[in-house]
Design the sequence.
């Protein structure tokens, strides 16, 4: 018996986009991402990055590893070296970079995730807090300097401060030109940060557009078992009661401003 995990997927992702992929458990999100990043070859179809078929035997695998970075869910479980520096350096060393360039990348990637190189380089990654371990694991991916970064539930299990720090870092990377493709169940985060949202149901694309376009499809998403961002749900419920607020409100600041303008600031 063969189960079709993905069907009729036709996507074009532009350089520099911040993609949020949403869908309930078992919808095909992770299968889609592992196929796109070169880890799970589909039985049919092709996937191209920069015009290269990533599953073609002629495609340079070292090029692919340096172009595409993947942060799995709970990436700290992949830490294995005795020091932070050695762990972050593992990828660049496997790319064949010299010691000077490797050290430079380790320093830069640790600083990018908010960890001081001098303070953390000689520490054991297993003695760090959960949030710090997550940062070290992400730094190991960033040390490869990927043009495209795939992230599978990157903030799962983190405390609120660590979640905010990791998302701020992700936004900075995106603004620097890195394409972000992120699976998330955090609808508020997707609404706040993503420039484009792709909703998946039963291995097919259910919706694809800007966050406002996708999250305005209340009944469609509800039928797929997906929750709305809090602000979108609030506006939806208020409008059912005659509030007549703009349906595209999905972010906290925009929603608060609209509510204040409509009903006046509470004093």
Sequence:
């Amino acid at each position: 018996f063969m189960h079709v995990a993905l069907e009729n997927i036709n996507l074009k992702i532009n350089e520099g986009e911040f993609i949020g992929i949403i869908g309930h458990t078992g919808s095909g999100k992770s299968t889609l991402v592992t196929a796109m990043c070169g880890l799970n070859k589909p039985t049919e179809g092709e996937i191209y990055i920069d015009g290269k078929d990533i599953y073609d035997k002629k495609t340079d695998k070292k090029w692919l590893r340096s172009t595409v970075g993947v942060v799995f869910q709970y990436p700290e479980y992949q830490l294995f070296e005795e020091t932070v520096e050695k762990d972050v350096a593992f990828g660049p060393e496997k790319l064949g970079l010299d010691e000077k360039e490797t050290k430079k990348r380790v320093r830069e990637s640790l600083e990018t995730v908010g960890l001081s190189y001098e303070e953390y380089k000689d520490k054991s990654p297993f003695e760090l807090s959960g949030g710090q371990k997550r940062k070290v694991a992400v730094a190991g991916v960033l040390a490869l300097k990927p043009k495209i970064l795939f992230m599978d539930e990157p903030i799962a299990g983190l405390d609120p401060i660590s979640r905010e720090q990791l998302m701020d870092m992700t936004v900075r990377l995106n603004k620097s030109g890195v394409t972000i493709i992120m699976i998330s169940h955090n609808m508020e985060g997707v609404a706040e940060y993503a420039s484009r949202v792709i909703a998946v149901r039963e291995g097919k694309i259910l919706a694809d557009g800007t966050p406002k376009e996708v999250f305005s499809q209340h009944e469609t998403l509800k039928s797929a078992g997906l929750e709305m961002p809090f602000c979108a749900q609030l506006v939806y419920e208020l409008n059912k009661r005659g509030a007549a607020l703009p349906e595209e409100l999905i972010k906290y600041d925009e929603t608060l401003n609209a509510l204040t303008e409509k009903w006046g600031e509470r004093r």
Observations:
- The two ends are 64 Å apart (CA to CA).
- The longest helix spans residues 160-175.
- The mean pLDDT is 91.
- Strands lie at 18-22, 48-49, 52-53, 68-71, 148-152, 179-183, 196-201, 204-209.
